[in-house]
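re: ur question from yesterday

yeah so i grabbed the chain u mentioned. its 382 aa long if i counted rite. heres the sequnce exactly as i have it in my notes:
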Amino acid sequence: MLRLQKQLLSLLRSGGCASPLQSPHRLLYSTSSTTSASAFSVDDYLVNTCGLTREQAPRASRLLSHLKSPSNPDAVLAFLSGLGLSRSDIAGIVATDPQCLCSKVDRTLAPRVAALRGLGLLDSEIVNIVLSSCSTMALRTGDIAGRIEFWIAIFGSLDNFLRASKTANRILSCRLDRVIKPNIAYLRQCGLDVSDVAKLGSNGLPLLGSNPERLKELVMRADKLGVPRSSGQFKYALSIVNFVSQEKIDSKREVLKRALGCTDEQLRIAVVKHSSLLRASEDNLLATAEFLTNEVGLEPEYIVHRPALLGYSLKRRLLPRYLVMKVLQEKGILRVDYFSMAAATEKKFRSTYIDRHKESIPGLADVYAVACSGEMPSQLRP
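ran it thru and got these structure tokens back, copy pasting raw so excuse formatting
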């Protein structure tokens, strides 16, 4: 392979175009440095061949001061280009991980890519894994194929792992033996389905990668929310306490208690049923709670048993659907439970409450469309 790469780079430098071995990706590096080894400049190479800016080059070159020749970097660039990485992709990788240029293609990169292909990954998927962290570090350090096999077992399939890797760029750099495996064992002791936690994606993976002692503290905080560990909501409660401080959680609970006029026990019902409502900002929680109680006229008991209402968008969902409900009620067409309207999918809502009445109320669809845009329909203005 090394001989082939040298032949390709030689052809590129000589400007030859007849060889069928020259792919568009290889031609990206036809400007590779032609200076002799004795005159080799790392900064110039990073700019002229790797595509870094003059501002980026000095930061990267500090880690490459030992390079005296473009030979090994040329081989790495040719290999990455052959995988399907574009020139801009590779520039980003080199800027983030300059030491990738010191990797040995035959001894490190090629065998590890071969192992990934052996797992069933396509080159495009390997490229996505590299780009998810904008680094070849996953390729050049450790047993990447073994790590991916581990995560596939956690996520349940290669596709699930690939989806997660797009949003969690530290997934392959987490320490398995010291952090991930102890955390998984502990979560299983707590009765949690670890695959469900992992599938929370960018919310779940930081949990699995937490310091084991901190994870135990998070579990205790989630317990204090009142959500049973056996509940499907517990994994969401864990995710919330991981991202929201206890001070913020306490403040949001107080806001909801005042706005709804409910007790601690009533609020606990809402949190147990829909702990994700604690992710919303205090301003949104306050505005939504006041709308539901003052405008729609719902009782606190009704709301806490249907806490999803507090998580819906006030402007884009709750208010527009309430206006439609008011029109239908004023026309005497139907009386409907508000939560049924608010919780319906967009398709179901339109077919049930708008399309079905378009003959008897021609402007109903317009009222809804204007309300969804954030304006008050003229028909309903005082």
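noticed a couple things. Confidence is low (pLDDT under 50) at residues 4-37. also The first helix runs from residue 2 to 14.
anyway ttyl
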